[in-house]
Amino acid sequence: MVPGVAANTAGHTDTTxxxxxxxxxxxxxxTLARVTIRLADLGCNILGLQVMPVPGGVVDELVLRPxxxxxxxxxxxxxxxxxxxxxxxxxxxxxxxVDPSAAALAAxxxxxxxxxxxADVLREVLAADVVTLVPAAEANPVRTEGxxxxxxxxxxxxxLVARRSWAPxxxxxxxxAQAMLDLLVAVRANLSGPAVVTCxxxxxxxxxxxxxxxxxxxxxxxxxxxxxxxxxxYHTGVRxxxxxxxxxxxxxxxxxxxxxxxxxxxxxxGQLIPAATGGTAEVSLLVEDGWQRQGLGTxxxxxxxxxxxxxxxxxxxxxxxxxxxxxxxAALRAGLRAPLPEDGVLRIAIP
Length: 351
Fold this sequence. Notes:
alpha+beta; GCN5 family acetyltransferase; 10 helices; Aminopeptidase; ACT-like_dom_sf; 31% helix; Alpha-Beta Plaits; seven-stranded mixed β-sheet; four-stranded antiparallel β-sheet; transferase; 26% strand; acyltransferase activity, transferring groups other than amino-acyl groups; GNAT_dom; 3 domains
């Protein structure tokens, strides 16, 4: 059997069949013309053509309607006689005959509307056989299977593994797919607007950046917190915070604050403050006692990680007292990698 050609190679096609094939050839004048002339001699009608540069030549993808009675094996042999190496032939649908960039943008729109459909959308964009979402630890990106397997990171969700038996993936396709996934990540982060979180008890809370007008609400948050909660946040025995601290809490130098708002009350506060060395930012969390163990800390640390990544940081740090592991547990629940603290400092890797 010819490599890359389906098991029914020996069979003949009907007049309604449509094939997608990829052929590799030298990038020299006249090569494509010889191939198209040969296809015309075989009675094939070319419906679509896409040229994809690869190292040492080009890969041409053609969608065609073959002549009645022409087998896939005969087609591959005819192309080989013209110096074109056929990487694979598979069935196609005339509905796929759209501009690849337009198709990718339309696919992004569907994935934005339904984030759970990202694997199906990626499969469509890559014309892959299957795309599966797996934990990052199981993705094994080194295993490429001769170009027929590709791994795309999917942030805290894990990794998307794409497989295609009929032809290897080429770099142009990979770049297009990665750009689509990057756009989806940016849309998901939605850094310019608020995010809605559903707590474990069903309560809806809004996460949004803090601003100076929130000073009274943040002061009230501190007043409702217990001495234990205040001690774990500030590592000192303060009962509340001086009002002169409020502006710095809400608008830290070079950093930002993130509030969890339920109704008119601020029920949790997070901060992200970049380190002087760059690439790292310190985070802190304060969650009102009555709202603890409801997933707010997890939501805050996950959102702060997204904001940190958008700012170019690759690591979050948090100062922890001995035996204090609330921030680490929240980070782990958010899908972040957070080894045990060293010298009282917790280091959280941003994907």
